[in-house]
Structure formats: C-alpha cells, structure tokens
C-alpha cells in the first residue's frame, strides 16, 4: 500500500498533513510517496482559490488550522505574507527530490518551518537564499536545479497528472484510486490503509 501526497509548501494544510503522514504510513506499513505540484496552477486550471481569498472563510480556516495544529501537537504560525508565490520553491523541491533525494526531507523541513513556524516572507528571493544557506544548501546548486529543464518539466508533469486525477487543492492524498482532499481527512486515509 502507498499514499501519494500531492502538496505545495505554500499551503498550511499541506504543512499540517506533512507532520502527520509519515507516522500514519509507518503505523500502517504503507509507503509515503511525495508528489510536489504547483498549487497556483491547480487553482488556475480548476477555478478554485485559497480560502484566504474569501476574507470571512479565510479567518475561519485559520482558526481551524490552529485547532488541528493543537490536536497534532505541532507549531503553526499563520504567515502574514500569505499567499506566497511558490513556483521557484516547488521547482527546488522537485529538483532536490530528483537529483539529491537524500536531502529531500531536509529541504521540505526547511521550507515548511520557514513558512509555517517562522512565518518568513519567502516571496523575497534574498530571504529564500539566507534560509537555504542557513540549512546548509548551496544557492548555486538549488538555482541550477530549479532552472533545469528536466525539473521544470517534471513539476509541470506532476501538476498535470494531479489535474487529470481530479485534484483541485492541496494537500490531496491518494490511496489507490481513492482521493482524499485536505489534511482534515487524514482519518479517512488511515481507514483506506487498514
């Protein structure tokens, strides 16, 4: 059994799911397959939008996310710079996954922590650079990966696959052909693995 985890680091719900899915998969003996996609392209293609685009929904969504963070026992700070343009970040994530897989989880932790614990403005390239350097990454290597044609093509391909499979937001998990949208449905993911 495996859980395919379609995500974007700019999604606080993806962050919360990321804090829980490894434990869920380990407990069920399932493989967790990370599928980085570009949420902005998903929104554009489906006509969907972030809950933050509707002020009253955005406020309530933030409250619910805080409730889940408390339930999970993980920190969460709603980033005042949200939404973040994640094109370069998700290219970097895809590139590291493809070419430096041993560093993939470290990069995910670095970016999720920067966005959803430290609430950094990762719309600023200089701040992205400082964040990555502090985490031990080479900016030149990350930029080369993010700008590599094969990496760009892979991110586009995964995003297109997500759309073809009915994904409209992040996170979205698949167990076989069953789709589960949102970090608030991880109990259904667990049930599907049982």
From TrEMBL:
Pfam family, one: DSBA
Enzyme kind, highest EC tier: isomerase
Keywords, ordered alphabetically: Isomerase
Listed transmembrane segments: none
Catalytic activity: 2-hydroxychromene-2-carboxylate = (3E)-4-(2-hydroxyphenyl)-2-oxobut-3-enoate
Domain of life: Bacteria
Domain called DSBA-like thioredoxin: residue spans: 3-194
Enzyme Commission number(s) from the entry: 5.99.1.4
Alphabetized GO MF terms: 2-hydroxychromene-2-carboxylate isomerase activity; glutathione peroxidase activity; glutathione transferase activity
SUPFAM superfamilies hit by this protein: Thioredoxin-like (SSF52833)
The keyword DNA damage is assigned to this record: no
The UniProt record lists the keyword Isomerase: yes
Catalytic residues identified in the record: 11 (nucleophile)
GO BP annotation list: glutathione metabolic process; naphthalene catabolic process
PANTHER family cross-referenced by the UniProt entry: GLUTATHIONE S-TRANSFERASE KAPPA, GLUTATHIONE S-TRANSFERASE KAPPA 1
Family of the protein in this entry: Belongs to the GST superfamily. NadH family.
Protein name: 2-hydroxychromene-2-carboxylate isomerase
The species this protein was found in: Pseudomonas cremoris
